[in-house]
Fold:
Amino acid sequence: MTDSDDDNRGIGAIGFESDDEEEEMAAFESGFFKGHPVALPILFFSELWERFSFYGMRALLILYMLDGLKYTDGHAYAIYGAYGSLVYATPILGGILADRLLGNRAAILLGGTLMAMGHFIMAFPQETAFYTALALLILGNGLFKPNVSSMVGKLYRQGDPRRDAGFTIFYMGINLGAFLAPIACGLAKAYFGYHVGFGLAGVGMVIGLIWFYMGRGIFGERGAPPNPVIFQAALIGIVVSCAVAVPMVVRLMQIEWLREFLIPGIAATMFVYLFAVALVSPAVERNRLFALMILFFFSVVFWAFFEQAGSSLTVFTARNVNRLGIDPSMFQSVNALLIVVLAPLFSLLWVKLANSNKEPATPVKFTLALLQVGLGFLALVIGAKLAGGDAQVNVVFLLLAYLFHTTGELCISPVGLSTVTKLAPQRMVAFVMGFWFLSSSLAHFVAGKVAQGTSVQANATAMESLNVYSGAFLHIAQVSLGAAIVGACLVPVIKYLMAGVK
Structure:
C-alpha cells in the first residue's frame, strides 16, 4: 500500500521534515506523549484496541468451549493449547513476510483485517465458524503482532535515548487493552451471551484498524514495502495463501497427532540446529548460545504455568472460587491492572539497584520468576485447604496468586528479548530471536498439557472438583519451586557462560 498525495501532504502538515539522509519526526511538546514522535499515539491506540480484541476473546474462549460447545475439560484444554501455541508461532513468519515483501504497514492492515473477520465469525454459534475464526485469528496475529512492535522501533534512530521510554508507553497501551477487555467482553457475555462478547472483541479490532489506517500517512516511508515494484503481486499472493491456509490450520487444530507433534517438532529442530551452530562457533559465542538455551527452558516452564490464567485457572475460578457475583472471565483483568500499577515500581527498583551495583543478573531474575509463579499456585492450594463445606475458595487467594504471577512476570518478561539481543551473535540475531519467540509457542503447548491434568468429570461435585484442582496446583507449585532451586544452582554456570553480559 503506497501513500497517496493527500497522505504526503498530511505528513508535512504535522511537522515532518526531510533531508537527503533521513526524515526526522516531530515530537509532542506537552501531554502524555511529550517528547515522543507524533506517530506514537497511532501505534499506541492501534495496539491497545488490538489487545482489547485479543484478550476479550481469550477471556471467553475456554468457558465457551465448555459451556457453549459442550466440550470435555480435556478436549477444551487441548484446543486452547493448540490455539495458543500457533498464535505465538506465526509471528515468526509474519515478520519475514513484512521484511521481504509487504512492509510493516501493509502487514498490520492485512493482519488486523483477518483478526477482525475471525472475531465476527466467532459471533456465529456453529462449530465450523468457531474453528474458522480461530484459524483467521492465528494467521492475522502472525502478521499484526510482530510488525506493530517493529514500527515503534522505527520511530527512533539508533541510540535515541527516548526509545526505551517509547516502548514503555507502548507497553502501557498493551496492558490497558488487556485490562479493559475481559471486563467489557465479560459483561457482554454475562448479560447478552458469549457471541455478543465475541462480537464486542471484533468491534475493538475494527476500531484499532480504522485508527491505524487513518494515521498511516504520518509514518512517511517507515514501514513501506521494501520493493514497491512487486508489492501488489506479493500482496495478492499472500492474501490467496491466507485463504488457502485457513482450512489447513483448521485441520491442524482438529487432528490430534498433528497438534501433538508440530510445535514440539519445530522447537526440537531449531534447538538441535542452534546447538550445532554453537558447537562450531568461537568460544565466547558458543558459551553465550548455551546460556540462551538454558534460559529457554526456564522461560518455557514459567510461561507454561503462567498461561494457566486463560485455561485451568479461569475454569477453577468459575467452579470453585467465591467470586462475589463477578463473571469468571473478568478476573483475567487482574494481571494487566497489576502490571500497570507495579511496572513503574519495578523499573525504579531495577534502576536503583543498578546504580548501587546490586541489580540481580538475568539468571537470578529468571529464578525469581519461577519462585513466584510457584508461590502463586501454592496460595491457591492453601486457599483450597481452607475452603468450607461449599468447596468455595476465598477470592483473596485467587488475587494473591495473580499478584505473585504478575511480580514473576515483571522479573522475566522485560529481560527476555533484551537478553537475546545481548547474547546472540550479530550474524544470526534474527534467527535466535525467532528461536526465543518459539519458547512462548512451546510454552502454550505445554500449558495445554498442564491444564489437561486439571480435567474434571462432567458430573463431579464441587468438592471433587476442588480436590482435583488442589492436587494439580500443588504439583505445578512443586515443579515450579523445584525449577527455581535448579535455576539458583545454575546461576554461577549461566553467568560464566554469558561471558560478562548481565
